Amino acid sequence: MYILGISCYYHDASAALLKDGVIVAAAEEERFTRKKHDISFPTNAINYCLKEVGISADKLDYVTFYEKPFLKFERILYQHITMFPRSFWSFYKTVPSWVNERLRIRRMLKKTLKYDGKVFFVEHHQAHAASSYLISPFDKAALLTVDGVGEWATTTFGYAKGTDLKIMKEINFPHSLGLLYSAVTAYLGFKVNNSEYKVMGLSPYGNRTKSNPYYAKMRKLIDIKPDGSYALDMSYFVYHYKMSMPSSKFVKVFGPTRKWSDPLTKRHKDISAALQMVTEEAIFAMLNSLYKETKCTNLCIAGGCALNSVANGKLLRNTPFKKIYIQPSAGDGGTSMGAALYTYNVILGKKKRYVLTDAFFGPQFTDRQIKKFLDRNKIKYTQFKSDKELVKTVASLIKTENVIGWFQGRMEWGPRALGARSILSDPTNPKMQDILNLKVKHREKFRPFAPVICADDAKTYFECDEPVPVPTDFMLMVYPIKKFARSKVPSITHVDGSGRLQTIRRKDNQLYYDLIKEFGKISKIPILINTSFNIRGEPIVCTPFHAYRCMMGTGIDYLVMNRFFIGRADNPQHMWDSESHAKD
Where are the beta strands (DSSP E) in 73-152? Predict the structure, then answer.
């Protein structure tokens, strides 16, 4: 049985394919189109999924969509009618696309895929909940989903046992913790649905105590109730009737809006810290209430707010839950997988039979394909004879201040590079953060880089939960670095002494694991910097062409694709700014 899940038209369009309830392929559309957070119908991602298993669309048993468009359209009409005439311009800009595209999913499937079979529509937050629980190791769990907005719901509380998923209560639009975070993101001069993680990364630079002058002001924006529910004071916002987010009252209370080119001041840092504090308070309150209702110590979280790794690292220490699971694509990109799983396990009543322990569901390239690309484009390279030779050489290069583009196996699922499409470097080098930011990533200096460590070494260097939760494998938890180690790994130690930890287990990625261990033998510190293989504003690389172009346009010193080894200095500086300049 083949089930295709689809997510699109809001942000992070994606597709995921199940075969007899097991995930066989999944990818975001942005990786193929090179448009970050691409919202369009995921034709390329779908074609990849079908090609991966060698079938055409007519072999699909079901297609499932990640929300109920008519229910969402009802909410959009309601909010615009309620706020009319102030909502006229927003109505004019958004409604035509709904009529022309988003209400006509069946027509798009027929037109694009020649598919005319059964289509299911799963509610957005059910897809979120399913995307976490139905691939978790739990046979029962409490469920929390928190994001901007689905159809009506912005937050849901639920419980699952077996394949029975129940949403017990929900918080509806316009009250939204996700939209609160996005509104402050916009106010601070960052891009909504793209840069919320930057605000999270900025927050440790501010005052994270209640003496923060903006904490009390931020706390007035949200009424957190004893039962874990919450309500926003909507006088501070205009997103329910305009194309912008904070209101003039918000600006009057918090000060002038920052433009993206303005310097970041202490005020901006304190506001981001206050936002993070209030967000954590709301999440902890929700979870403590959810535990009281479910009495279950297993927790599954999903939705865009589940990507808040700073909050995630504190959950087990601030709530009664003992075990936690978050899948690698917890935001809207992951709902295509959730919709497919919900269809298989809940709608069709099939047993839960799959646990997701790694994120490698995207395209991969054989040695023959990579060699063909290199030879056709007259790229100079050498080839390692064995994985052992590769690991020793690359570990030594990293220790001698080189930056490595690492391109191995199937591409990761989700927004984080997890050892398939990564840039790797030395965390013990105090200059490496600046080298990466200025020569490779071209991004803000305040943003930290993430450490990767083998799971069996994690407790030695990090104050993390025990046993180390699986979400750390997906870089979804921030933990304090132990004090003795902070001076040893300056380039991954954030201003507050923390790191957004990725752990790796040898069974999930043997080559990556062995490289980290080999670097540990050389440096005495078994940790690497792992950052996504891309530059600012671009999606993570997908193909050999994308990887080579990224190296040639940055300060990456060497590229390792499978066992092929390419040096930037060994190759002429071709113009690699468009597909037409190379034969991929």
Answer: 118-121, 140-146
- Whether the CB-CB separation of 142 and 300 falls below 8 Å is answered with yes
Pick the CATH number of 2-135+329-347 from 3.40.50.300, 3.30.420.40, 3.40.50.970, 3.40.50.1820: 3.30.420.40
The pTM for the full model equals 0.95
Cα torsion at 470, 475, 481, 482 (round to 10°)? 20
- Where, residue-wise, is CATH 3.90.870.20 in the chain? 367-581
CATH among 3.30.70.2470, 3.40.50.150, 3.90.870.20, 2.30.30.240 for 367-581: 3.90.870.20
Residue 470 has pLDDT above 70, yes or no: yes
Q: Dig out the tokens for 137 from the structure.
A: 């190791």
Q: Mean pLDDT in the chain?
A: 94
Nearest to 422 by CA among 548, 530, 543: 530
pLDDT per position as a tens digit, 145-188: 999 999 999 999 999 999 999 999 999 999 999 999 999 999 99
- Residue (of 15, 134, 137, 24) closest to 66 by Cα position: 15
**Sequential DSSP letters for 153-167:** EEEEEEEEETTEEEE
